[in-house]
TrEMBL record:
UniProt-listed SUPFAM superfamilies: Protein kinase-like (PK-like)
Molecular function in Gene Ontology: transferase activity
UniProt-listed InterPro entries: Aminoglycoside_PTrfase, Kinase-like_dom_sf
Protein name: Aminoglycoside phosphotransferase
Domain of life of the source: Bacteria
Keywords: Transferase
Every Aminoglycoside phosphotransferase domain range: 48-251
Length: 312
């Protein structure tokens, strides 16, 4: 179970509790017994009193991003696309002034314990990549812009780590315009990996974490699984099943090394807001940074496991 000991940072336990209770009170939900089930870029609570997940973004500065997330989620629902759904009947988002947090509410999908496999990503991604763009503007894919925003906001970050990540961002920014993309640009998820896949009540795979939906190269949605294969000690089949089912092999594509660096940069900067709130995430972040700076191909532990192991 998650620790109830307060820690500093945007997602300190006391701040999260204040936000959870204030937001639920505003929309008429009962937070009693709510369980903290995830914390990295956002904090997620599962309510015991209703089939609802409370999603907490760490700062009011993210409000435009949250508004776009809501717009995307409603558009995908209109398309009958397999994605998580906003909870109906709630005026969203909710801003909690006391903590500067921004809150949204989502339908909870109970999982049967059956693990998701990379090949389960293939059909939702193929369908997403063929959707006509919505009537409202989606951002153009730009992984460096988001990494730079996170770095600028990470005032607590070790100076040497910051300098290395900023150098990495500059390197990737130089390389991306030269990448020879093969697939036509499309609506992309932007953070497509098995951790952002759930099963609906009929057992079908659905995509979650829709914050990074944009217009960009479909190759990008296949890169996270390839990087997971290389970094997390997975068997080749972990990645190959997705490549074969989707019909494109990014590991055999000359643009992969640059997109791999962009993915690793995004993964590292994505957890910066949680470093001061989770010792487990901070320790794994340091392990990854030390390996990268030394030029080693270290095996990584997923941040969600690093957080869970430190809170059990």
């Amino acid at each position: 179970m998650p620790s109830t000991t307060a820690s500093p940072g945007r997602f300190a336990a006391d701040k999260l509790k204040t936000t959870l209770h204030a937001a639920c009170a505003r929309v008429g939900l009962d937070p009693t017994g709510a369980e903290l089930i995830h914390i990295t870029v956002n904090a997620l609570y599962r309510l015991r009193s209703a089939p609802v997940v409370v999603r907490i973004a760490g700062s009011r500065t993210l409000l435009p991003r949250v508004h776009r997330l809501i717009q995307v989620a409603r558009w995908l629902e209109q398309q009958d696309f397999p994605a998580v759904r906003l909870t109906a009947g709630i005026n969203q988002p909710v801003i909690v002034d006391e903590t500067d947090h921004v809150v949204t509410f989502w339908d909870y999908l109970p999982q049967d314990g059956q693990s998701m496999e990379p090949r389960d990503l293939a059909e939702p991604l193929r369908r997403l990549h063929t959707l006509p763009p919505p009537s409202f503007p989606l951002p153009t894919w730009d992984p460096i812009r988001e990494a730079r925003r996170r770095l600028a906001a990470a005032h607590h970050l070790d100076a040497q780590h910051r300098a290395w990540l900023e150098h990495m961002a500059e390197e990737v920014e130089r390389e991306l315009p030269c990448v020879p993309y093969v697939l036509p640009r499309a609506v992309i998820h932007g953070d497509a990996y098995v951790g952002n896949l759930l099963r609906d009540r009929q057992g079908r795979p659905v995509l979650c974490d829709l914050d990074a939906v944009s217009i960009g190269p479909p190759e990008w949605d296949l890169v996270p699984t390839a990087v997971a294969y290389l970094r997390f000690g997975k068997e080749r089949s972990f990645y190959q099943d997705l490549a074969d089912t989707y019909g494109f092999d990014v590991l055999a594509w000359e643009g992969f090394p640059s997109l791999r660096k962009a993915r690793e940069l995004n993964v590292l900067t994505g957890v910066l807001p949680a470093l001061t709130s989770s010792p487990g995430i901070a320790a794994e972040f340091t392990h990854r940074m030390e390996g990268l700076r030394a030029g080693r191909e270290d095996t990584w532990t997923p941040f969600r496991y690093a957080w869970a192991n430190a809170h059990t």
